[in-house]
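Quick note —
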Amino acid sequence: MQLTVASGKGGVGKSSITASLSFLLSQDINLVSLDADADTPNLEILLKVERWEGKKPFEGERIAVIDPSKCTGCGICAKHCPYECIYPEDNHYKVSEILCEGCNVCSIVCPEKGTINFKPTIPGFVKWGKTSYGFPLVTAELLPGRPNSGKLVFEAKKVARKFNHDLLLIDAAAGIGCSVIASINGSDYVLVVVEPTEVSLTDAQRLLKITEHFKVKTFAVINKFNINEEYTKQLEKFFSERNIKVVGRIPYDKSAVEALIKGEPAVKAYPDSPFSNAVKKLTENLKQIF
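Predicted structure written out below.
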């Protein structure tokens, strides 16, 4: 079974909630957690990985490589490169690995055949290890400036599924990008985290279009509901009109921020706080759904 926690915008508390859910659900369910926010993975901080047991490079798209010993410095490749990623260096030309898309134009126009070849990129890694709380965590980690976050998340999901588990709990990236689509694809359930603001609702509407496309059973949790209870009512009405059940209402609570500073799930650091009590109730509601 796969549950993906997602949010249309960042900063709504998605990862904090996921970390606490991982801690609580793992006490009764054989669980593996996956940090699919490949650009900025941070679950490892909150879940305290004792040691990384493995790290696998992810092979991405190819890029062009110019052999300096064969390059005559004519510059024809740079003139025709549609991405403007080839530049002169000493007496030859070189390819910017960050900008190259591997389109093959440079190789076609080069008069010195065999001078330009291609190699695969390593845009990121998948790593895995055991948390301090006894369950495994798999992390998708994209290197700065590299593409293919969606493909990297798919690879991370393959690694996560190799663990013996009954529940794969995924912390998706914020927004509706490729990595989010890769996270939601194949899910049995999606938990959408929102806060009572107009921006959060607008972004959640975009996210729901993805869950509707994949026909995934979707639920909602309203975080920091008490900062604007009037707008919380509008959110509840919005979800009710779309037959999306609100399975949790979590109050704004400074202990959640303090737990982040300590690097622990809030339900572990402050088990009796208003935030933790609300997440415990959310966990029980999810268990009934499972």
